[in-house]
Specification:
The chain is built from 6 helices and 10 strands. The chain is of the alpha/beta class. The chain has a single domain, classed as P-loop containing nucleotide triphosphate hydrolases (Rossmann fold), CATH 3.40.50.300. Strand 9 (about 185-190) and strand 10 (about 195-200) form a beta hairpin. InterPro entries: DUF7504 (IPR055927), P-loop_NTPase (IPR027417).
Length: about 200
């Protein structure tokens, strides 16, 4: 089982669970998801972060600030931002780059490479994945394209017995689009304007 942490009502979830972290902009959704990553990292679990909003440098800094003993062996970042901004990039042991948030094939490949490395090379069999954010993908692509990509991604998370936390700005999209995407998830983490968290799970421990 995976312990989500005190911010998630101390809930535990089964391996293979995908959660949609939903709420208005700038209300602590990202920090909440990162704190769940830190909860796992402090127990020796792996963290894979797909970032479509911030550079890998910022993600690394923010992640390390929450982990008791940061280790590059336990983190992988798929950076969809830096190359899109026109900067030259090269992949490292902890950062792999996709060309842009529209490069869903590239995102999926880099993500799968990290999962394979964690299992085969690093010996890490429990992993948490955060995507920040789904809203960026929806800015560049239609909901059906994003749905197909996320169906593949959430299936890979499930097959790997990992857990996924996918962030979305609930006020930036039509309710119909959000309801469409919700079908892919095993639970919803609703974060209101005050930062209060409500967790609705269809699969619980």
């Amino acid at each position: 089982m995976y312990e989500l942490g005190s911010d998630f009502e101390s809930a535990t979830v089964e391996p293979g669970t995908n959660l949609l972290v939903s709420g208005p902009a700038i209300n602590g959704k990202r920090r909440l998801a990162f704190e769940s990553l830190a909860q796992g990292a402090n127990n020796g679990e792996g963290s894979v972060i797909i970032t479509t909003r911030d550079s890998s440098n910022r993600v690394t800094t923010d992640y390390h600030s929450l982990v008791d003993e940061p280790s590059d062996a336990h983190i992988g970042i798929v950076d969809c931002v830096t190359q899109h901004q026109g900067r030259s990039v090269s992949d490292t042991s902890i950062v792999k780059h996709a060309s842009s948030p529209t490069d869903m094939t590239g995102i999926g490949i880099k993500f799968s490479e990290f999962l394979e490395e964690f299992y085969s090379d690093r010996g890490i069999t429990k992993n948490r994945i955060v995507m920040d954010s789904l809203s960026t993908l929806l800015m560049y692509s239609d909901v059906q394209t994003v749905f197909r990509f996320m169906h593949v991604l959430t299936s890979r998370i499930e097959d790997a017995d990992a857990i996924g936390l996918v962030i979305i700005d609930s006020t930036a999209h039509d309710a119909e689009d959000i309801n469409t995407l919700k079908q892919l998830f095993d639970g919803i983490v609703d974060v209101d304007e005050a930062g209060d968290v409500t967790l609705q799970l269809s699969r619980t421990a």
